[in-house]
Design goal:
Chains A, B: Its main location: cytoplasm. The structure is a homodimer of 220-residue chains. Chain A is mostly helical. The first copy, chain A, contains 6 helices and no strands. Chain A has a single domain, classed as Methane Monooxygenase Hydroxylase, Chain G, domain 1. Helix content of chain A is 84%, strand content 0%.
Amino acid sequence: MREVFHDELRSLAEQLTQMSGLVSAAMANATQALLEGDLALAESVISADAQIDAQQRHLDDRAVTLLARESPVATDLRVVVSALRMSTSLERMGDLARHVASQARLRHPHHVVPEVLVPTITEMGDAAARIATAAGTVITTRDLELAAQVERDDDRLDELHKSVFTTMNAPEWSESTERTIDMTLCSRYFERYGDHAVSVVRRVGFLVTGEWMKPVQPVA
Amino acid sequence: MREVFHDELRSLAEQLTQMSGLVSAAMANATQALLEGDLALAESVISADAQIDAQQRHLDDRAVTLLARESPVATDLRVVVSALRMSTSLERMGDLARHVASQARLRHPHHVVPEVLVPTITEMGDAAARIATAAGTVITTRDLELAAQVERDDDRLDELHKSVFTTMNAPEWSESTERTIDMTLCSRYFERYGDHAVSVVRRVGFLVTGEWMKPVQPVA
């Protein structure tokens, strides 16, 4: 009976890792759609978000069923409750990728990202997608060194987020207000996406070490 | 024994209502600090957020203890799991109020909100604080009419959020890029705050009716 329960927990972890892969791909595609003004790609990210939402509901149902059926205590209980929280973070990451894609769709056929910010947004998209994939790996492997790498990648995302503001506040910035608004929002979406990934890996860290790590303080 | 359990559930609900009151006051004060450039008030919101975070941890510990000790099933289990989710939303609302206050502190002694946006931001702050208080009342009373009012107030917040962009995109807008960025972020904080309040009242609705309501789609 315990063995069956632990198989279920492993399967929950695998589903979370699968969701991480989906939200990573969503952000990679959303970034590409944003940079290239690719309407079809943007639409595909937007419609695929429903799958991520459905995965979350399915995962949450399974977790609640496990709670009802097995009445776990101690570490087992913490694992199930953590799974519920991680699925919430991952679902939110999917939303944020969808927001980036929506911005690309909204401005099509125009490009959202001005030339001067293309390298920054490219790096933000790469970091965000990498972070989500790594968070997924941490969930199944509980590799705390990789978790530390996620934290460093998120620090880099925060720096890039600040640098977007620095670029826009420089005297050379001559873009429209609409573009300033768009870039402020998109940069914020990337930054929040990173925060959620960090929150996922910290929950794993908590399960492994029993010590809660410092809370995520989003910049801005 | 069941009676004790239901007392505990009621007490969890009361603590959630208390948190709603704290996050409502935080947003009311943060808005005032933003509009009046009141540094001391901004600082007080920022430091009070730690109390909201502590309340959330306390509430979550109690909920997990309840799960471990009582092994609730069916509706009782749903109530405890919902309490965990509501506390997450409320904690996040506290963060968003802190972000608004941080913006006021960052620009002090300058005012963040240009004259033309003072009425809009005033109304956003009022709506946000009212929504949070109402969500708290819905948690203990399960008053679904009041829940519907929260949805309407949130719709109004979304309209105001869009109107901030309309104002900034108008040819008359001659504010600095910094101000455009600040107002984009602040408006987004209010809008997200409303979304979280709606998510709280929808969870209550779900507990009462067993029917999940339509998901919140944040604008922008």
